[in-house]
User: Fold PAS domain-containing protein from Streptomyces djakartensis.
Amino acid sequence: MITARAAASFEPVGRSVASARSFVRDTLQGWGFADIVDDAVVLTSELVTNAVVHAGTSADVLCLRSDEDVRIEVADRYPEREIPLQATAVNMGSPDREGGRGLQLCAALAGRWGVEYTPTHKTVWFQLDLPARAVGTRAAGPALPADLLPLADDRVRVAVIQIDRTGHISAWNEDAEELFGYPAEQVTGKPLTDLAAWPHTPGTSTGIAEALQLSRWEGSYGIRAANGRVTPVYASHLRVRDTGGEPSTVCLLVRDHERAVLQTPTRVPASDAATSSEGQNTDPFEVFIGSPAPDDLDGLLQRTVERARDMLDGDSAFLLLATDDETELEVRASTGLPSARQRFARVPVEAGPGRYGSARMPAVHDDLTAVPGAVPLLNGTGMRSVVTVPLKVEGRLTGSLGVAAEGAGRYSNEEALRLQFAADRIALAVESARLGELERLRRGSLSFLVEASDLLAGTLDRDQTLALMAQMTVPTLATWCAVYTIADQASEPYLSYVLHEDEELIDGIKSLLSKVPPPDPVPTPGARVWTTPAEVAHQAALRSSMRSLGLSGGPTRQVTPGIGPTLATASAVGGETVVLPLVARNRVIGMLTLGKPTDEHFRQEILELAEDLSRRAALALDNARLYSERTAISQSLQRSLLPPELPMIEGVEVEVIYRAAGEGNEVGGDFYDVFPIRDGSYGFAIGDVCGTGPNAAAVTGLARHALRLLAREGLSGPAVLERLNSAILDEGARSRFLTLLYGEMRPQDDGSAELKVVCAGHPLPLRLRQDGTVEPAAEPQPLLGVIDDLELYEETVTLDPGDVLLCVTDGVTERREGARMLGDDGLADVLTTCTGLTAGAVAARIMRAVERFASDAPSDDMAILAMRVPGLHKD
Assistant:
């Protein structure tokens, strides 16, 4: 049954939101329902904002009182603006945005709510239940007859139970033993959930585990006693921490019918409450913020500005936090202001002389139009009067809280005192939450840098390093990024890599950046703002849009032809863009450019993290450059030590396979050569110099070129190797011993080939006959580069048609898998399977068998030289 009614209409202007809040507050306080005023005002504020600001229509507010609840209806004249059904899972957007939170709040705060449509109106209503006020639970009241006092047993027992952070019982007093029948030693260490019958009161959505995590909680549930029955209890939970910082929960429990012993008195109307000298309520922290308070910093700050706005009937509110050096204030929460543009913006602590120019003192501005720029945050927002107060902890400025209104002269010192009292109550909680967030950010930053260092150290490839740099910054640090590289001091910065979190925008940004001058390669550490991309993209997009509309004019600044960015590209680079130098070994080797979309700025913490990352990335990029240069030099040197191509020998098939071990930045010691000596005669060699690197390369080059020169002088094989041995020894400290198989081959008219071979310390060549037998084709002799006087001799081998001569380096025969080694016998076994194969097929089969012999990558260079005599008629 409706017992009272109040209605009012409000015009579609921003001031109407504050007027609607005042109307609802005055109405409910007049009815004596101060208990639900805060929730009703918050919900009304959101719904009226949706009507007059977002829908752009007038709003009708109707308050209905009944015996059990209060119903408030907000109607607008925009029925086409549909609202999602309650049963539909709808993403209502970010809680940081200005609109769209009304229904979320209704669902969270109201007992019932709904939406009704008519052809001309849309009505959103919510219903708040009136709290039951049991006799004897008021904060203060008259003396009552004894028969009206709450009923209790002869002795009131209050069970005191302490629960540790894991939910287990750590303390259990005597009254708990008496009430529930368990001795302390029986329940200590057990989880409270084993004893709690939850929920005892239907309708609650909080579980016992969640209730134990709240800072304060009161309510009813049951405890399973030792006799198996459930004892209804009324509980009051308080979350505390010991001197070591360990949290726990203290639970006070009484029988449910004795709840008056613990139940917090309900708040009385404002007329009955204690007031300050100015007649205003001195609400405690829990009343101002609400209970439970948000756990996260952003939630706490957003709740603070909303409650501050409602408390002073303002049109907007904002909260700023001080930077570490307390010279600037950073916007962290706002309501009624364009938060997307203002969030993380910074203003100086001391904006001007005197009290009104400092955030360290409370200030009231009657009319901002008379003092332009007095509050830079409110420039261009339409706000005229504002009150700001500092947040201080132990005398240190930690932030600033402000409330503003569209009308002039709205606030006086009385409102400043009320807001200052609220700021004093909230300052410590905000600072604690800020320090917690800062600690989490520092830990996250440390983990990020450790992971980034590991990733950058895991590659020496330049292109992969550039990709990693971009992928680590997007989207963690920025929306888009570009990496410029500088080859040397005389080179201009080159755009090497571009990345955006939306892949469809990468080409547009790359096209834009490639047409504008790159940022100057300044070695000064730290991030500096680069405005060129945003300016050029905006002007080019505006000119393009005007041309599409058939308009002339536009910006007078000359835009580079061919840029033509779309509006999406202009929006992508329209925010803040910063450049960080990539400095390695006292030289600028590039620049890391980070950007945000339109109206977004970087937080200082993000820029500091990006600066740390840029130092690590610069060193990794320079290491990759040095490694690439070294690898290119080594590969070029290795190619110079091998013959450019093999000669075509009539009547003999020749095939060579060479595999260098390692990462490609070391010059190997293995080499081979096949070259013409004179008409009808060819020399061949395969050798292995001890070690790798420049010294080994010197001996390799000496050996290959000396062999050709000496052989073409008409010297025999032993004479060639003896003179080569002397040349190696003449190298002195740079000399290396050399194993070498050298031979001269001359194809014969009958289809065979005659070979004269000298094997100086090298693995013996193997001869494969047509019948599948394998035998060594030479005898071992001393290696080169060890002793002066060598007595070498040559052996003559005749390869019949179909025969194969296989020559390898020790990287083939010494291939290992654990304790097993391929060896000469294993190589011979593989060669026996190659009967009838061409020289190329024989070399390929040998290499395949060697690679499959062990799972690990080869640790030594390998060279395989196969020669086959097919005969007069090729197979």
